[in-house]
Design a protein that fits this description.
The chain is built from 26 helices and 24 strands. It is an alpha/beta fold. The chain folds into five domains: about 70 residues; about 120 residues, OB fold (Dihydrolipoamide Acetyltransferase, E2P) (Beta Barrel); about 270 residues, no CATH class; about 80 residues; about 260 residues, Metallo-beta-lactamase, Chain A (4-Layer Sandwich). It has an eight-stranded mixed sheet, with no helix packed on it. This is DNA internalization-related competence protein ComEC/Rec2.
Length: about 850
């Protein structure tokens, strides 16, 4: 702290900002009061460091106050009579325009808003001093509008007609919160416009936005040049690697990079800046340019490179560090890179405190600080390696070690092959592909033919790289899924790793000094201070060494226990859970038994009615509820495998999301309703089951599953199955054949009904007409509350205390039907709906059910 006051102050600033973000308002100031008293006590005991302690304390409080000040001002100045109000906006486009399929998206800084109040024919106009940013989505009406959308750019003044809506919050526990994401960009409204004709373009403004628009144009031209030098998917990959354009990355190739922890290669960061600066300075030195002049040229290059590569937080961090480092190097003042990093962090957080919650910012600074701190501690363990390999191995291991906690916080997965992939591929990409690709781009700007010659070996290396990533990604059993850990878990991991390596280095240094002391009489030993070699001294050293070994062993055991706790699911043993996940218009429920078994019932699915002539509307990576909602939630909850997946029937809104589930998790068994749907989705699911040797069972009345001693699943419908049959029939109308089952768990009962219709209800009631179903605790209402099921007789038979309707908000089917809702309310049944309350979770313990929902109850 005394040797690096700037670093200590930066740590205090980061801690204060983080505490204010997590505990806003009076809770932060209460914590600050407690910290003040703690600092005063430490200062009285630890007098030599009181000045540094006061600086850190002041930085903590100032940072918290600075964050709260920004939060107070981060609110909209627009008040609307209703959500979805039709408005006319005037303002300037202040972000790059992204055209993807039939959607053009950008950020508009509105300076004036006009709205038409209900019952009036007069526009009410409001000026917005200083402007307010809004996220705009323009739904293109026809393919002819694509060139028009492509002509929009930053700095363009526009008038836009559309509807103003509040961004949606997260609808599932732990899911991505779009409203929070926009809030951190100081955006509070989403504007949706029907067609490019809703936007009227005006003149281009002068200023920063217009200048950035020119940069966007230059980046687009560079991207077009890359497309001429590299074929197909390689062009998208090289755009990301060279200039930070990731719009055209092949989704499958990007997924392979993500699985192996290689996405940092595509995020322009310190290695990219360092390689390009080294190339420039090396070239200038070869041209006999003086060292000072070469540094000046490099200083001028870095800001231009930051602009061309997109000005992301990682680019800003690496660029500012490089510029500050080059300046200090020229002045002969570069002594401590950790202080340089601290200075850059302070500058960025003062400029925009919300950078702190940016994933790119966190990973960039954490990895850079980790390399500075941990690499010297780790290098002694690799003395047995050649000197040229030693540093590369230590850097790779440290980067993986430091990025691991943040990776599982945000992505909830880590491949055990990640270290191997980084050791093999990063040196090739960093030392060959990046420099040669940059050279090909520069030469290609002058002559495409010459650039293509230089690009030829890069193409070969790219092909070899992705063949390697494809082979590594195909190795099953190496991907691990982790629940999102707490801040305390992350802090404990970093502290434990540091102390383990630090005490290891001290242990090794003492051992080396003891060895030198034994050779003290040797004339060839270099001059050094006299070492006490008395028996008592050796005894003290041995005792100290044993204590250090015991401490290191304790730390290692603690880290192992920490990893075990982090790898365990979020569910408590001895408690059952039923989680009705909000997948929009569809069904998906996760059953977790008290013993920790996981059963997934359906997986939602995105239904598309798009015709072949509208293929141009398809986006590069269309939204798919399984890959974007179900799989991320299962990972975030620490689920590693599924003991069973039940396909109640073959409709797309029930099975569409299961392909991503089967591709991501080991599945022990599939249960189907004894028939197949004539769809590509069903065919793909069955092919995947065969390929992965997943047993497929036909469910029918009388089948029982017992995952543990307090959980029993009894199939009630279909009445007959096809188990053992040589041929499974194809059935077009799947609803009638839905799997219906009763779940009894630790004294509580649940009924799952799929999309069964009233005819199936009558069949079951006719079969059991002489008996009473008895009351059940929870019924999953069939077919999203459609009027074709959930008859009065059905409700009278089961007498549920609670009902759950899984249905999409503002769906086009009119679900749930008012008749069904009135029928449920008429029997005083507690009703939960995913369209109004988002995900609904039920926790079962000893017959008692505790319910919580993600969104507050709305009328």
């Amino acid at each position: 702290m005394n040797r690096r006051p700037l670093t200590a102050i930066a740590c205090g600033w980061v801690a204060g900002s983080a505490m204010a973000a997590g505990y806003p308002g009076w809770r932060f100031w209460l914590f600050g009061l407690g910290l003040s008293l703690t600092c005063a006590a430490i200062a009285l005991i630890w007098r030599p460091s009181w000045r540094s302690l006061v600086l850190v304390w002041l930085a903590f409080l100032l940072a918290g106050g600075y964050w709260l000040y920004h939060e107070t001002g981060n609110e909209t100045r627009i008040r609307l009579p209703a959500n979805g109000q039709a408005v006319r906006l005037e303002g300037t486009i202040v972000s790059a325009v992204e055209v993807d399929g039939d959607r053009a998206a950008f950020t508009l800084k509105a300076s004036r808003i006009s709205l038409l109040p209900v019952g009036s024919s007069t526009l009410v106009t409001q000026e917005i001093p200083g402007g307010e940013k809004m996220a705009v989505q323009v739904r293109l009406a026809s393919q002819k509008e694509l060139p028009m959308a492509a002509s929009w750019r930053r700095g363009l003044q526009v008038t836009l007609d559309g509807t103003l809506e509040a961004p949606q919050p997260a609808r599932n526990f732990g899911a991505f919160d779009y409203r929070r994401y926009l809030h951190l960009q100081r955006i509070h409204w989403l504007v949706k416009a029907p067609g490019a004709s809703a936007l009227k373009a005006g003149p281009t403004t002068r200023g920063i936005a217009a200048a950035m628009g020119s940069i966007d144009t230059l980046r687009a031209r560079l991207g077009n040049r890359i497309e001429r030098l590299f074929p197909e998917w390689q062009a998208g990959y090289m755009k990301g690697l060279l200039i930070g354009l990731q719009d055209d990355l092949d989704p499958d190739k990007y997924a392979e990079f993500t699985q192996l922890g290689l996405t940092h290669i595509l995020a322009i960061s310190g290695s990219h800046v360092a390689i390009n600066v080294a190339l420039i300075m090396g070239f200038l030195r070869l041209c006999r340019v003086t060292r000072e002049s070469a540094i000046t040229v490099a200083l001028a290059f870095v800001p231009a490179y930051m602009l061309i590569t997109g000005f992301s937080p990682s680019v800003i961090r690496s660029g500012l560090m490089t510029m500050l480092g080059l300046y200090l190097l020229r002045r002969g003042l570069l002594k401590d890179s950790l202080n340089v990093l601290a200075a850059v962090a302070m500058l960025m957080l003062i400029w925009d405190p919300y950078y702190l919650l940016n994933v790119s910012f966190q990973l960039s600074f954490a990895v850079t600080a980790g390399l500075i701190v941990f690499v010297p501690l780790l290098l002694p363990y690799f003395r047995w390696l050649p000197s040229k390999m030693r540093g590369a191995v230590a850097i790779t291991l440290v980067a993986q070690l430091v990025s691991f906690p943040l990776t599982i916080v945000y992505f909830n997965q880590f491949s055990l092959l990640s270290i191997l992939a980084n050791l093999l591929l990063v040196p090739v990409i960093g030392t060959l592909v990046l420099p040669l690709g940059t050279g090909a781009l520069l030469l290609g700007w002058l002559s495409v033919r010459i650039g293509s010659w230089v690009a030829f070996p890069v193409r070969w290396l790219n092909t070899a790289t992705f063949e390697a990533t494809s082979w590594l990604s195909a190795r099953s059993g190496f991907m691990t899924y982790w629940k999102s850990p707490s801040f305390l878990w992350v802090a404990a991991f970093y502290i434990g790793c540091y102390l383990l390596l630090y005490w290891g280095k001290r242990r090794e240094r003492h051992a080396a000094e003891a060895l030198v002391s034994q050779w003290q009489d040797d004339d060839t030993v270099p001059l050094r201070p006299v070492v006490d070699t008395s028996p008592s001294t050796h005894l003290k050293e041995r005792v100290w060494a044993r204590r250090v070994d015991l401490l290191r062993l304790t730390l290692a055991a603690g880290l192992v226990l920490l990893l075990i706790s982090g790898y365990s699911p979020v569910y408590s043993k001895g408690t059952g859970y039923i989680e009705f996940i909000d997948v929009g218009q569809g069904d998906c429920a996760l059953i977790t038994t008290p013993s920790g078994k996981h059963v997934l019932v359906d997986g939602g699915g995105t239904v598309s009615f798009r015709k072949a002539k509208d293929a141009w509307r398809e986006r590069r990576e269309p939204f798919e509820v399984g890959a974007k909602t179900v799989v991320p939630l299962l990972k975030k909850r620490g689920i590693h495998r599924l003991d069973a997946v039940i396909l109640t029937h073959g409709d797309q809104d029930h099975i569409g999301g299961l392909q991503a589930v089967l591709d991501s998790f080991p599945v022990e068994a599939l249960l189907i309703n004894g028939s197949l749907a004539e769809s590509k989705t069903m065919t793909s699911l069955m092919e995947t089951a065969i390929t992965r040797r997943i047993p497929v069972y036909s469910a029918s009345r009388g089948m029982n599953l017992q995952p543990d001693k307090v959980t029993r699943l009894e199939v009630l419908y279909p009445l007959t199955g096809t188990e053992g049959s040589s041929r499974i029939p194809f059935v077009k109308e799947q609803n009638h054949h839905s799997i219906v089952f009763r779940l009894d768990m630790d004294g509580a009962s649940f009924l799952f009904t799929g999309d069964m219709d009233e005819a199936a209800e009558r069949e079951m009631l006719g079969l059991d007409q002489n008996t009473q179903g008895g009351s059940i605790d929870v019924m999953k209402v069939a077919h999203h509350g459609s009027k074709t099921s959930t008859s009065a007789a059905w409700l009278a038979y089961w007498q549920p205390a609670t009902a759950l309707i899984s249905v999409g908000a503002s769906n086009n089917y009119g679900h749930p039907h008012p008749t069904v809702v009135d029928r449920l309310n008429g029997q005083n049944i507690q009703l939960y709906r995913t369209d109004k309350q988002g995900e609904v979770q039920m926790r079962v313990r000893r017959g008692k059910i505790e319910v919580r929902n993600k969104l507050p109850q709305t009328p």
